[in-house]
Amino acid sequence: xxxxxxxxxxxxxxxxxxxxxxxxxxxxxxxxxxxxxxxxxxxxxxxxxxxxxxxxxxxxxxxxxxxxxxxxxxxxxxxxxxxxxxxxxxxxxxxxxxxxxxxxxxxxxxxxxxxxxxxxxxxxxxxxxxxxxxxxxxxxxxxxxxxxxxxxxxxxxxxxxxxxxxxxxxxxxxxxxxxxxxxxxxxxxxxxxxxxxxxxxxxxxxxxxxxxxxxxxxxxxxxxxxxxxxxxxxxxxxxxxxxxxxxxxxxxxxxxxxxxxxxxx
Length: 265
What we know:
The protein starts with about 25 loop residues before the first strand and ends with a strand. The strands form five sheets. It has a four-stranded antiparallel β-sheet with strand order 1-2-3-4, with no helix packed on it. It has a four-stranded antiparallel β-sheet with strand order 5-6-7-8, with no helix packed on it. By secondary structure, the protein is mostly beta strands. The chain is about 5% helix and about 35% strand.
C-alpha cells in the first residue's frame, strides 16, 4: 500500500530553494528536479535544484537562461523550450550530472521559423513532454499553449498545433537488460550511416504532428481534435510513445470534461 511521506530536507537552511508558486517539479532517476516558478512578489525565477530523495539534500544547478513553463527531462538532460519570437524558437539543454569534473553548462539551440524551416510559432505555456517511437528514437512533444492578441486589451487565445523536436538518438552500446529493444538502439546506427552518407538525420529539428482520429471517433461530438484547450492535465503513456490529456478549459473559457490519447507513430 502506498503512503504519503514528508521529505524534510537535511540541507543547510541557506542551501534550499526559496519559497515559490507555479514551479516545475520533475522526476529524474528516483530524485527530483525543481525549476523556476514565481517568488512572493510575482517575479519569475530561473533557478534549478536537484533533490536527492535518499539523502534529502538539495543541490543547486546552474540558473536557466530563460523563464518558461515548457520544461521536460529526457534521458539525463533538462530541456526548456521558448517560442517567444515570431521568427525563431529556442531549445535549452542542461546535462544533469552532479559529479562531473566540470560544472554543467546550458546549451542553447536557436532555430529560425520560416516556410523553409518550420517550427512552433509564438506562444506561452506550451506543454512539453518526452516521448519515444522505439529503438532509441527520442523526441520532445511540444503542443498547445497560449498567445496574446494583437491589441493591448486582447485576451489570450489558444494554440491547437503539436510539434516534435527530434533529440540525438540513444547510445548504440549494448547494455545489460532483459529487453532486446532496450539492449541496443538501432536509431543511432541508422543515424551514423546517414551521417556518413551526408544524409540529413532529422536531429535537432522541428516537425509538425498531423493528428488523425480513428475511424470510430470521427463522429464523436463532432470533434476529431483535442485542441485548442488550456489548463489541462497530461502525462505520457506507459510505453512513452504517446500522451494522455484530460479536462481543461476551451478557447472561450468553458470547462472541458473529455480526455484524449495521442499516440505517435
